[in-house]
């Protein structure tokens, strides 16, 4: 009986303890639930009782694939797409813009160089053309002047020496004119008067041809002409007449009055 009584007490004490713990647990749960529902002193209208609590995170929506194979994965972006889509800073040129500007500068520089080279080439060609035209004109003018001057400069007649020497000096220039004046005054004139000398010069001319004269060299202001000159001389020292076939190199210079003889050399 004693064991039975002891077992009965122990059983009642354990049930009482369990009931007490169960009641305490329920009370704590209720307090916790009221704590979540009842607003605190600083609660706003959004946290008032009776309203659903605002979720702190977005809702997760599960989407079923449209077929058994599932969804296709999107292609991975390439680095070029990031470079194209990347915003550029204001005022900073992109690689394409810098390349285009560099090409434009290079093209502009090349065009300028070509333009300058073209202008120089045109100037040189124009200068050479002008020089060639002037040289050709000088060639013709000097040749004509030499043909006309040779008979006058290389001829004289003792009966009118002053007139002949004056006409000859009009076709001379420079130092050679002074030498001619000195020679005719001191040597040629006195000799011609003493021996009644007469010299008549002509530029040789083949039958049906032009006078035998040609230009050796020419420039804008100077020319050298080779002439074949025949001189017929008569005097008291010669019986009859004497014919001399001479080759004469005549140098001419351009002056304000035209082409003048600046030198005569017998070859």
Automatic annotation (TrEMBL):
Region (Disordered) residue spans: 1-102
Subcellular location, record wording: Membrane
Keywords: Membrane, Transmembrane, Transmembrane helix
Composition skew (Basic and acidic residues), residue ranges: 30-39
Chief place where the protein resides: membrane
Residue ranges that the Swiss-Prot or TrEMBL entry lists as coiled coil: none
Regions of compositional bias (Low complexity) in chain numbering: 1-27
Start-end of Acidic residues biased regions: 70-93
TM spans (from-to): 106-127
Identification of the protein by name: Mce-associated membrane protein
Organism: Streptomyces lutosisoli
């Amino acid at each position: 009986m004693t064991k039975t009584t002891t077992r009965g007490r122990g059983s009642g004490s354990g049930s009482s303890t369990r009931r007490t713990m169960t009641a305490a647990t329920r009370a704590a749960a209720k307090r916790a639930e009221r704590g979540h529902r009842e607003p605190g002193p600083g609660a706003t209208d959004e946290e008032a009782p009776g309203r659903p609590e605002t979720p702190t995170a977005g809702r997760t929506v599960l989407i079923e694939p449209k077929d058994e194979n599932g969804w296709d994965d999107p292609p991975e972006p390439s680095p070029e797409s990031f470079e194209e889509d990347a915003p550029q800073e204001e005022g900073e040129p992109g690689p394409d813009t810098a390349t285009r500007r560099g090409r434009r500068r290079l093209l502009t520089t090349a065009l300028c160089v070509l333009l300058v080279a073209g202008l120089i080439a045109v100037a040189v060609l124009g200068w050479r053309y002008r020089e060639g035209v002037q040289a050709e004109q000088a060639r013709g003018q000097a040749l004509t002047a030499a043909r006309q001057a040779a008979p006058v400069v290389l001829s004289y007649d003792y009966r009118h020496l002053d007139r002949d020497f004056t006409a000859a000096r009009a076709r001379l220039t420079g130092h050679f004119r002074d030498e001619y004046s000195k020679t005719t005054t001191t040597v040629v004139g006195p000799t011609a008067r003493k021996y009644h000398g007469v010299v008549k010069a002509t530029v040789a001319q083949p039958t049906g041809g032009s006078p035998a004269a040609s230009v050796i060299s020419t420039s804008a202001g100077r020319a050298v002409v080779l002439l074949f000159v025949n001189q017929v001389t008569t005097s008291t020292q010669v019986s009859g007449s004497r014919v001399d076939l001479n080759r004469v190199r005549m140098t001419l210079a351009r002056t304000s009055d035209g082409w003048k003889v600046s030198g005569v050399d017998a070859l």
